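For the sake of transparency, this paper describes our internal protein records without simplification. Because each token names a local backbone shape, the row as a whole describes the fold. One such record is reproduced below, unchanged from the form in which we store it:
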Amino acid sequence: MIELNSLWESVQKEFRKTTGSVTYNNLIAPAKAISLENNQLTIELPTKSHRDFWQNEMTAKLKDLLFNETLVHIEPRYTLERELMTPSSPAGGIMTKQTPLNPEYTFEAFVEGRSNQMAYASAYAASEQPGGLYNPLLIYGGVGLGKTHLMQAIANNMLRHNPNAKIKYVTSETFTNDYINSIKNNNQEQFRREYRDLDALLVDDVQFFSNKEGTQLEFFNTFNSLHDNNKQIVLTADRNPKQIPDLTDRLVSRFVWGVPVEITSPDLETRTAILRSKAEEEQINVPNDVLSFIASKVDTNVRELESALLRVRVAAQLHHAPITIELANETLKGMEAADEAVISIDLIQKKVAAYYNIRQSDIVGKKRVKQIVFPRQIAMYLARELTESSLPKIGKEFGGKDHTTVLHAIDKIEKQLAEDDNLQDDIRNLRMELQP
């Protein structure tokens, strides 16, 4: 069993060694680990600025550290002190203990633009008339574009209209773990009551149901039960459900019963509006020309945008300087340099090849001998774990392999990790070599 206090001490010790003293003392040290349940670590932070910093700057590093310490994939969740002192939902609403709603995720706080207009309108309609035309509602798109914000805004709006609504918000991993535990503990009926006696079920990241046949069947039956009773179902995914590998056709058909809506990267106008909204929320005085400059430099997603604004703000505070285009330019140059140090698939292939004393060309080639296939699978696993690349992208980088081949490799390594101490050591050593 993982001991929370010693785990957090190890994490803080590592951050103390690898982070500047000003950043550590002001932004990292105040964080407190509150609980570790179902592979989810709840971290308490004193202010919104601290939470933004951890969400945007620390999450990837933290997940790597947690894995290195435990060899378990642990998801961090950040909360403010005041949120821990108040209920996560109005009386009567039931929320999964591990994933409460964020009260700040509302429709009013969401910045609407051309890239998310359809998703916003569909989500709002679903919250106003649950179980109606937009049921199920599936929102799909890349990381950091606002899918989870809209999903939780639906729940928050439903609870505002009906404080006694029974709403459950979980990740697909939580659903899977709850289902597996119900089988182990012989209480599947209780599990089904908890997931079907609801007014709304919201499930984040359904792409992780891929290749889990038993879980897919259980969710299929759960879906049907809720839909037959006109209960609202909201789902998110990182891609169109038709492109998710190893999902049964019947489950895909359920996912697209409603209107799947896509969120794409925001355009320049929307990015500027997002930054302006964030600056107003944080009560930061940022000139319009600086907001436009930052928006022109960061064109990926909302998370990266907010991270850039936070970096500029911290730089201004550290240098006791006003926020100007010159300051923003210097700060974002540092951000670009950090991005260049991000782990690439090519680097992973080189490190794995060297570790197992084979050539990189073997890793990306077609040879099927065990001495090459196994390192290749490890490299695919690490590519999925340490980069933001999609399964098709990883397959392409490994000599044009099909995404199902990549998924098979990842699944095989994950299963073997649970019982092979030598493999655990190899993965730990490789991750340490790959840290930027």
Summary: Residues 345-434 form a domain with the Chromosomal Replication Initiator Protein Dnaa; Chain: A; fold (CATH 1.10.1750.10). The longest strand covers residues 32-37.
